[in-house]
Amino acid sequence: MADHAQPSFKNDTQPTIARGLPADFYTDPAVFEREKARIFFKDWQCVGHVAMAREPGEYFTAKVVDQELVVVRGKDGELRAFFNVCQHRGHDLVKGCGKTRQFVCPYHAWTYELDGRLRGAPGTKGMPAFDAEKVRLKEIRLRVFAGMIFVNLGRNAAPFPAEFLAVEDEIRSMVPDIEAHRVVVEHPLIHRCNWKASVENFSECYHCPTVHGYLTSQVIRSETYRLDSNGWVQRHRIEGRDGNADQWILHLWPNTAVGLYPIPELGEASLCMRHMYPIDHETTIYHYRWLARDGVPDAPIKAYARHHTETTGAEDCEVAGGVQRGMRSLGFDRAHLILTPDQGHSSEHAIAAFHDRVREALGEDIAP
Ligand SMILES: [Fe+2]
User: Fold this and answer.
1) How far is the CA of 207 from the centre of ligand 1 (A)?
2) What number is the average pLDDT over the span 40-52?
3) What spacing in Å lies between the alpha carbon of 338 and ligand 1's midpoint?
4) 56-69 pLDDT, tens per residue?
5) Fewest Cβ atoms nearer than 10 Å: which of 222, 245, 307, 357?
6) 227 Cα to the center of ligand 1, angstroms
7) How far is CA 224 from CA 41, 221, 368, in A?
8) Buried b (16+ CB within 10 A) or exposed e, 193-204
9) Distance CA 297, CA 230 (A)
C-alpha cells in the first residue's frame, strides 16, 4: 500500500499491558454528564457532509447528544448551524431534512430567515415592546473541514484541532474530490453500550478474526492491519484480500471516522463516514454514511452497505452489547489492554491513547 506521505504518530513500541478506564465510566450517568459538558459540548463534533446541504435552502437536522441542531445553506451560500428551537415558546422548529426558503415554526408560525433572523411573528404588528430585530435563532459555530461539517456548541469554542488540520493533506490525497461526493445511503445501527465502547471496538482489529468471518475471509487481510494514534487521530491501514482495494481510515476524536472501504462488487474502495453518536450513557448510534464520487453507481454501494450492516455491523452490535453487560458485572473492574503496536492487528494501543484523551478531557486524575 502506498504511504501517501503519512507520518507515523508516536507509538510506545514496548510491548506492555495497560489498564482501561474504570467500569463505572461506562455505566454511571454522572460520568456521562461530565463527558457531555467536557467533550461533546466543548470539542468539535462532526454532524455530516457538505452534500447534505449543498444548495441554498437545503437543510438537515442533527443531534449532539441531546441537543438538536439544524444545519442550513443560506441564500448567500453560507452554511450555518442553529439550535433547532423556536425562540417564541421553545418548540422544535424543523424536522428531518429538505429544502426551504424560510423556517416556519409548526406551533404558532413564527418565521425565520435562513440566517436566523426573525422574519415574522403573527399578531405582533403595532407592538412597540416587541423588537423583532432582537430575536434570532441561536447560532452555533460551524466549520467545514475536508467536506465534513463540524460544529462546536461551546460558549468559548475550543480552536479547531491542529491534529485534524495536520491530516487534511492526507485526506485530500486519499479522497481528492471529497467535497464533491454525494451521500448514497445511511444506516444507523444501535449499539447497546456506552459510546466509548463503540469507539474502542472501532479502535482495534484484534477482534476481527474472531468476530468478523465475512470481512476477514472476503474483504480484508486482517493480519496486515497497521494502526497508529496520537489520541486525536487514529490511522488504520489494511490490505484488501483477493484483489480488493486497500482500506484506509482516520478516526477523529471523539467519535467520527472517515475512510475508504473496499467494496468487492465495485472493484474499488468507497468513502464512508461513521459516527458513534451517544444517546445516553448506555446507548449509542453507530451511524454509517456511505458516499460516492461522480460516475460511480449507487447500486453496488447500496448492496454492500446493506450486506455490511447485516454482517460486520450486526456482529459489532453484538460485541458492543456484550461489553456493556460486562461493565455492569461485579466481576469486572477495568480492561487489560494489550499494547503491541509493532504486531499489527492484535494491538489495543489506540484504545489506550483514546483513554488518555478521555482522562485529559475530563481533567480527572484516574490512575491508568
Ligand atoms: Fe468489529
Assistant:
1) 6
2) 97
3) 17
4) 999 999 999 999 99
5) 307
6) 14
7) 37, 6, 29
8) bbbbbbbbbbbb
9) 36
